[in-house]
Amino acid sequence: MAETDQPDLMTAEKTDPVLAAVRRVWGYDSLRPMQRSAIDAAIEHRDCLTVLPTGGGKSLCYQVPPLVTGLATIVISPLIALMRDQVRGLELNGYPAAAIHSGVELDDARDILRRLTLGELNLLLVAPERAVNPGFKSFLASLADAGRLGAIAVDEAHCISQWGHDFRPEYRRLAELREVTPKVAMQAFTATATPRVREDIARQLGLREPEVLVGTFDRPNLTYRVRARRNPAEQAAEAVRNHQRAGDGGGTIVYCLSRKDTEWLAEGLTKLGINAEPYHAGLNEKTRRDIEHRFSNESLDVVVATVAFGMGIDRSNVRLVVHATMPKSIEAYQQETGRAGRDGEPAECLLLYSPTDATRWERLIRMNNAEMGADDEATEAQLGLVREMRRLVSSMGCRHRMLSEHFGQTYTPPAGMHSCGACDVCLGETEIERDAKRIGQIILSAVARTGQRYGAAHITDIVRGADTEKIRSTGHDRLTVHGMLKDHRKAAIASYIDQLVTAEALERVVDGHFETLRFGPRGVAVMKGEEEVPLARPVGTGSARSERRRRDRVTDAAPMSFDEKQLFEKLRGVRRDIAVEQSIPPYMVFSDATLRELVRVRPDSLNAMLAVKGVGQAKLDAFGDTFLTALRNG
After folding, report:
1. Degrees (nearest 5) of the Cα angle 238, 241, 246?
2. Domains located in the chain, CATH noted
3. What pTM did the predictor assign?
4. Which of 89, 221, 346, 357 could form a disulfide with 326 if both were Cys (CB 3.0 to 4.6 A apart)?
5. Exposed, middle or buried by CB within 10 Å (0-12, 13-18, 19+), for 211?
């Protein structure tokens, strides 16, 4: 692009200071509609609740207003690693910001507050515990009285609601900030919130007639797959290798439920030739920081972790997220899978599921809540989230549609398509069970003949013809249905039971710590053959053809040629060298998406390079000449 084609930024700044700031600092020419509305609300000192999916650009919503108003914004953030990365990334963009947390010395913290008071800083990140400290509340009150405080932004705001998936008691006290700064706008941000949770957030924070902005929850660049868990190490290794063969590169996060699981699975992947490290809270801080650093700087691509990993790791080119166990809620699943493809490029989310996962989660929730003294209402709310997640994984409907509908949104397939084209169901990786009517009748008959007093595991053993002590002692080996589905795998029958529950032919009833199956509203009709519940089963993994379809639906750009791939890898090498020299993660230099755009456009001047999405003025000044030389010599 010639220099004469560049926009006049001085003119733009006069007509739209918001877009001018975004262009100058982050290198973006436009904002998403929800981002713009949230930014305008902060500038106009209005309360706002913004729900944008992971990768939807929430942080810009509270980072941009101080650049326009010159007033400070205080951001409540729950993780030290997240605060550190955000501040370092902003500094690289030429944006003055700071964070106060347990790792900051007292004198440094005082200096940060002094600079904030003087206007040398306009963005400060703090933990919720720090924010409600009496001394800090007094500081906020004085800052507001001096006319220096523009807004208080609460990130991960779903943590304030007991109806959400990650309730944190310390978040409940954040309403105290409204009491000491009554005239300051309060803004709440989250990636996952149902209508009920949104109402609770607004009530708990005391938001005043807030503008409620809810973005599209669907992530079209993500492909969702659910597989029966057989050998998680082999299944995860196969998924990693598929991405390596496809040239996707990037990182992989494998989520496990327990510390022991992470170590066992990481060892299994290593034995299969995949370089993987376990990550959990039981490791010493030095080891955890080392793994975080290696994953961020792309010297380690596979981490097997408990669910906390990833919240503070802003690596934009995670291409694969594997759940070795069903997450405890759809909200948790949405948030954790949202760590894939944050740069907008295609990514895959593989969930390995066993029917015992939900039972395990329910047992843990009851045990933890009993220890914490949680009330019955809160416990039942969390158990309800587990059951909703189980319905999602057991259903054979479009995954994108079900996720959207869970958050109260109607799903519309991409233009020209009849389905999402990006989940195992819509990619034809499942097929209808032709013998569904008979299978349903056999399972329901087994439930009826055992008095509707047993759980799914026992019913599965009966119809498969298991010879166990429990089967013999109850006389269930003499039932006519015993062994009638002996040719079906245990995981398949468990999936059929889940689908019958979803179709209301069966219901799960929890009595104490035990779960039993009983007939649902359609149960008798299905058992008698008067109604039929379609049943489906998985038939295989994604093909190269389905992967091409996935890519076609999320990008209009043509695939890179061999020469372009060579240049892309060369630019990745340049980025890696800069990252090592600056002691920062490579994504903080430029994202993969920006590198691909540089390869496609091949700017021939610094001014032309400034037109590439993701290239702001500070990064152009710092890295522009180096990348321009690489492009010219490529």
Report:
1. 125
2. 31-214 (3.40.50.300), 222-423 (3.40.50.300), 432-538 (1.10.10.10), 558-632 (1.10.150.80)
3. 0.76
4. 357
5. middle
